[in-house]
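hey so i finally got around to running the thing on that chain from the lab meeting. sorry it took forever, my laptop kept dying and i had to restart like 3 times. anyway pasting the input first so we r on the same page abt which one it is
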Amino acid sequence: MNIFSEFEDKINAYYKIISKQNNFPNDLDLSKCVIELPRDEAHGDLASNIALVLAKPLLKNPKEIAELFVTEIEKDESVISAKIAGPGFINIYLDQSRWGKEIADILSKGIEYGKNKLGVKQNINIEFVSANPTGPLHAAHARGAILGDVLANLMKFSGYNVTREYYINDAGSQIDTLSKSAFLRYCQSLGETSPTIPEGLYPGDYLIEVGDYLASKFKNKLKHFSEDKVIKEIGPIVVDIMMDSIKKDLARLGVKMDVYSSEQELVTSGKVSSAIKKLQEDGLIYHGIPEQPKGHVDSDWEPREQLLFRSKDFGDDVDRPLQKSDNSWTYFASDVAYHYDKLQRTNGKLIDVLGADHSGYVKRMTAAVQAMSGKDEMLEVKQCGLVTLLDRGQPVKMSKRAGTFVTLSDVIDAVGSDVIRFMMLTRRNDQPLEFDYAKVTEKSRENPVFYIQYAHARARSVLRQNKKPLGKANLSLLTNIYEIRLIKHLASWPKYIEAAVKQYEPHRIAFYLMDLAGTFHALWNAGRDNPELKFIHEIDDELTLSRMHLVEATATVTKIGLNLLSINALEEM
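ok and heres what got predicted. didnt touch it at all, straight out
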């Protein structure tokens, strides 16, 4: 059992003793009690907030409660002392030989270390990327792709039944524009138009190949069609070609979806109508005049009656239109139907990973999902901040192929998928991120990907240098300050996993791995300065064996973390 779980159980047991002795209620909720590492090493090995948790329900001073727990805690043979700090925190000082048990726990569980049962028998759908199929993925799409993919890995590691989903926006005006742009390239392929791309069409060179394909498939046939017929004929073909390109880019990034859903199929199958009917039956739709959108001048907007969803009842700013003046559905109506469909298929919680330009989307969709599910917090939305691509501090030039942006494929070619995956997690998802080609390819501590992979390779190198088998070891010998710091960090791994899953924050894993690598390198450097601290002790085989277990545990946890990020754990560098 992990030391944190062990002491959480002990705190619960101590409360049963204390409640009986002091006639306290024995059924209080202790779930908010946490055992964690103090921020300052001088404040002990473990810290508990139990006295603060109990103060309100017991109507007592937390320090008074803390004193009762200290008495029980100090009876534990692994505890040297327990002290009260601040308003009532309990700092626990352990016999340092106790930490060696954590290494045994890690090695016994191996690659499963840190797994938990937070999501057992629970379904979750994570929709991410969902870029319009009008061109190749750009660099900013990588951030959402990686956030969603790593989050899915973490949720699966925690027992959830996870579905990765991509929503294809293959209906609407953008597909008409795509078809017209592809038709122009088709005509160019036949040698019948100028290379100039009119305003309003997609200018990227990626459509040249599409035009060539259409020319080979249709010959001159399309030239005799009306514009509407051309769009109807080639639209699905061009979307398929674009999606094939997108899937290839995602595969290069290490991302594989479980489900691809189509907006067009959603509309034609009648699922939009079904979702609207559901809202209507629940009394959540009415005919009315929507509020004027903020930022619009009078000439841009005219009041007229529309079919509206009562989204204000569920925390939105305004009620949202569901139908246009021509009786066609709004984009919002399609989004409502899509989430209703996901709720039915998933029978569990939904997560949407969105770009920085979708801030206005959040309230309306959380309102719609709450209305359709009848439950709070069934939709979690994670937005990604802007990504700025630099090379030695200068903006990266736009891709010739894309015409207006840097493609994801270009970035992968430049730095590799491992680098991209890690660097996109070096900031909270909602914060802007600068990605400098020069810095992320340096072989130094300034490049966290290299630093972590090097830590794993260095650990494997140490293990290869040890010629003796890893038999049973006396792990209580691991007591110097550098070893204890490393063990504490390794022992914290399950808590980091739980926090990342509960808060939907994969960046916590990247931060953890950077700290773990730094702690391991510090121990290695200490051994270089002091021969007594070397992993392989020249005359003490028993100590060497215990340190080999520590190195093996470090390599194991590092590999687990990199696996969850879908990054290679290199054996040598």
